[in-house]
Structure formats: structure tokens, C-alpha cells
Model the fold of this input.
Amino acid sequence: MFVRWDRRWRKRSADYALSAYLAKSERIGGKPRQRVVFLATIREKYLPAPAHRVIFWDTILSRLEDFDQRIGASKEGIIAAIEARVPRPDQDELQEAIKAWHSERPEWPVADLAQRYRLVLAD
Done:
């Protein structure tokens, strides 16, 4: 299994969207085929924004968890390939994102946000 990237121009927002897919190559009836599963999308202009990367990585990790049985030992390699293109947020960036979310929506408890996104952090 490997990560395949798709970069598409978005007319409405006038920027590019970067989508990650999990692909598996196999032969069916003697012909090469790929089975492809969508993982997540992030817009390129938001790559430096910690809040967007937190949500991107939360989506990636939850989708990879769904495919744990099929991925097996290649999970670390898949995560490394995605990290090479979209860096995982560190603790400071996560706290910055949580503060931004809390300032926009005070009804969201900070402790709940920190607990939900703790798995997103880079090691």
C-alpha cells in the first residue's frame, strides 16, 4: 500500500486542494488495477495553519484506524509519507489551534478539544 496525492485547482476559492489517497496495486484477471480509498483533503494555502493541519491529521488517523487490519505493518510508512507532505502539528501548535477554536466558540470546552486531538500530535 502507498499514498497517492491529488492536487486540484479550485475555481471558487482560487487555490489548490491537496488530497491524500491510500492505494493498493494488484492484478485482477491478469491486468494491473489499483484499489483507492480517500483519506483527507487540505487546501494548500492552509498548510501553514495549525488548526487546519490538526483537523487534517485527525481525519487521516481515524481513517487509517478503520483500515488497520488491511494495512498491517505498513502503517508507519504510510504516516511517514503523509508527514513528508503535510507536517503533523506539535504540542504548541495544537494549543494554538485550541485557543483559536475556543475564542471563536466559547461553548467548546478546552479540555474536551485537547483530549480529542491528543493523538494528532507528532512524536
